[in-house]
Amino acid sequence: MDFNGSDTIPGPRAEDQLPHTAQAAAKIVIVGGFGVGKTTMVGSVSEITPLTTEETMTQAGIGVDDNFGSASKTATTVAMDFGRISITDQLVLYLFGTPGQQRFWFLWNGLFEGALGAVVLVDTRRLEVSFDVMGRLEERGVPFVVAINSFPDAPRYAIEELRTALDLTPDIPIMECDARRRASSRDVLMTLMRFLHSLAMTGSRA
Q1: For the chain, what is the radius of gyration of the CA atoms?
Q2: Are 191 and 173 in contact (CB under 8 A)?
Q3: At what angle do helices 182-205 and 38-45 cross, to 10 degrees?
Q4: Which among 62, 64, 38, 65 has a CA at the least distance from the CA of 52?
Q5: Mean pLDDT of the chain
Q6: CA of 112: how far to CAs of 143, 144, 179, in Å?
Q7: Are 38 and 77 in contact (CB under 8 A)?
Q8: Residue-level pLDDT at 120
Q9: Rounded to the nearest 5°, which phi and psi values hold at 177?
Q10: Which family does the entry's similarity section mention (predicted)?
Q11: Terminal CA-to-CA distance of the chain, rounded, Å?
Q12: How do strand 75-77 and strand 54-56 relate by DSSP bridges?
């Protein structure tokens, strides 16, 4: 019963309802190390109010979580972020942001299940944390693109230098982005969709 004593269960808010033209949906995961901007990206690009599972960081995480470069961060994702974006009138992407701290990485397997592809967010101040992230995607066979999130105090490198440093094959797209900006985050997702389409076309010719 609702608060008015009615047996009617309220449905989703109008702004959260799927477009009536939607015909297909795909699951995309946004992954990366702690504090690289996953929650920010999901929030900036989602057309619905995003679901977040952020909790306040406490002193219990000192010595356990690596928050280098994110000393001002006061909350962290402990399960996932969730958002949605319509790429076309027919295609909808469901976005799942993963927790960044290694002690929560056991949740990744479930989040990777059924994922069509992934965006790996990278902070150039901590390139080394990206290797484990990409390794997990490769183990699960999840195709991915790499997005270099532009932090004001982060060192800047040429894209090809970053490709070499991250040991990326020439076919994997890599680009700069600003996860705070909707247009930039959408461009990353569009790059991922074009990459997935190219893989599908290549596979169909094999």
Answers
A1: 18
A2: yes
A3: 90
A4: 38
A5: 81
A6: 11, 12, 21
A7: yes
A8: 97
A9: -155, 170
A10: Belongs to the GPN-loop GTPase family.
A11: 56
A12: antiparallel
Strands (E), the chain: 24-31, 54-56, 75-77, 81-86, 91-97, 117-122, 144-149, 174-177
Residues 101/76, Cβ–Cβ less than 8 Å: yes
Listed residue (171, 175, 169, 124) closest to 146, CA to CA: 175
Give the separation between CA 113 and CA 142, rounded to whole angstroms.
9
Reading the block at residue 104, the tokens are 């929560």
Q: Which letter does DSSP use for residue 2 in this model?
A: -
Q: Residue 53 and residue 39: Cα distance in Å, rounded?
A: 9
HSE-up (13 A, CA, CB side) for residue 80 = 16
Look at the chain and count its residues: 206
Block residue for tokens 């690596």: 66
For residue 10, the 8-state DSSP code is P
Residue type present at position 104: F
Tell me which amino acid residue 92 is.
V
pLDDT at 79: 54
Distance CA 77, CA 134 (A): 19
pLDDT for the residue 23: 72
Nearest CA among 80, 86, 145, 76 for reference residue 113? 80
What 3-state class would DSSP assign to 97?
strand
- Write the DSSP symbol of residue 60: G
Instruction: Give the C-alpha separation, 20 to 129, whole Å.
Output: 41
